[in-house]
Design goal:
By secondary structure, the chain is of the alpha+beta class. The chain is built from ten helices and 18 strands. The longest helix is centred in the first third of the chain and has 16 residues, at about 35-50. GO terms for molecular function: ATP binding; ATP hydrolysis activity.
Length: about 375
């Protein structure tokens, strides 16, 4: 199920943004333009499917911090509004999901800056007509069951709950469950820790790992799965060699834990352990695990993946992004024009420019 468009209104510097989404979505702009707000707004759609939308906004400082603070039209409700559209590649059916979060009313059981889920709607368009699959206003939710009947969900929603997650987990609404499975499968890689205790530097439990965790903690197991389960590390080894002057990844057969190391041309007789590698090396290896793993998620989002990388590593990074785009959608936010140009050369994706105008994030292209 592919993401085809996305819009966000009233969120931080995003007064009103609408984006058409292709196989590769590429956004480039200077620091402070609002690129991370675009990335974060998309991440909140996943949070809605996981039932954590309210808590994610609360972690940002609550609604008071997350709301657009610029000029609003008189009479409009003060809300964060997210909308995402999807297409099922097998059936050509189109899904639309809409969610609105706002402040608690003056007299309510909620806390002062707690996000309240006000409205949600999920519709399905099969080409003949659009059908409302779920509708939520306040605590009441109506949805289509497995037989297509519009029924009231027996449990009323709390202000902090998303109906999308609650109904998907009930087992009574198959279409909602299918959409949630897609959304919860998305992966967001907002950089990787590179300090001495970074998860990506540590050994991992020897468990078959087809996909990299968002914090990179199972990186060694992802490499071991590629080498010893899938038996294919051609792309992985080529990109690492290109990025690191001919270096070679060493992936021993795991025992109770999985390990990896790096062999560099200057010292071919020695394997350098992860804790000995530079910040740029460990970050590139984590990106390789994310983009070249055995199985890829429906969508990978990368926020400034060029951080800490030497300029010579950007073309191999673009190669990995292009390779991943053959199997999943990729969303890249960067302030590196060199990386954006390299991705465009390999995928044909035209970079959209993100800029600030009168405090508002504007996306051109």
């Amino acid at each position: 199920m592919r993401l085809t468009s996305f819009s966000a209104r009233g969120y931080r510097s995003l007064r009103s943004v609408h984006l058409e989404i292709g196989q590769v979505s590429l956004f480039v702009g200077e620091n402070g333009a609002g690129k991370s707000n675009l990335y974060r707004a998309l991440q909140l759609v996943k949070a809605a499917a996981e039932g954590t939308l309210a808590s994610e906004i609360a972690r940002e400082g609550g609604m008071h911090s997350a709301l657009w603070t610029g000029v609003r039209k008189s009479g409009q409700p003060v809300r964060i509004i997210l909308e995402a559209h999807f297409e099922d590649e097998e059936t050509a059916a189109r899904f639309s999901y809409h969610v609105e979060a706002g402040l608690p009313p003056p007299v309510s059981a909620g806390f002062k800056f707690e996000p309240h889920l006000k409205e949600e709607e999920l519709s399905l368009d099969t080409g003949r007509r659009s059908v409302e699959m779920m509708s939520r206003k306040g605590p009441m939710v109506f949805a289509r069951d497995g037989e297509g009947r519009r029924v009231e969900h027996p449990v009323r929603m709390m202000n902090s709950e998303t109906a999308l997650a609650a109904l998907a987990g009930s087992g009574r609404y198959p279409e909602i469950g299918d959409l949630c499975a897609t959304l919860t499968g998305w992966r967001f890689y907002h950089g990787f820790r590179t300090d001495r205790d970074a998860p990506a530097r540590r050994p991992a439990l020897a468990i078959t790992s087809p996909m990299l965790d968002e914090d990179g903690s199972n990186l060694a197991a992802v490499f071991a799965t590629l080498a010893h389960i899938r038996g294919d590390t051609v792309d992985l080894k080529r990109c690492i060699a290109d990025a690191m002057g001919g270096a070679e990844l060493d992936i021993p057969l795991p025992g109770q834990t999985a390990h990896f190391g790096l062999i560099v041309p200057e010292f071919p007789q020695r394997v350098f352990a992860p804790e000995e590698l530079s910040d740029g090396q460990i970050r590139f290896l984590a990106l390789a695990g994310a983009l070249l793993s055995y199985r890829l998620p429906p969508l990978i989002a990368l926020n400034e993946p060029e951080a800490s990388l030497h300029p010579s590593m950007l073309p191999p990074l673009a190669d990995m992004i292009a390779k991943a785009a053959e199997r999943c959608q990729v969303w890249v936010v960067t302030h590196s024009q060199a990386l954006a140009d390299a991705i465009r050369e390999r995928t044909g994706a035209r970079p959209a420019t993100v800029m600030r105008k009168d405090g508002e994030t504007v996306v051109k292209g």
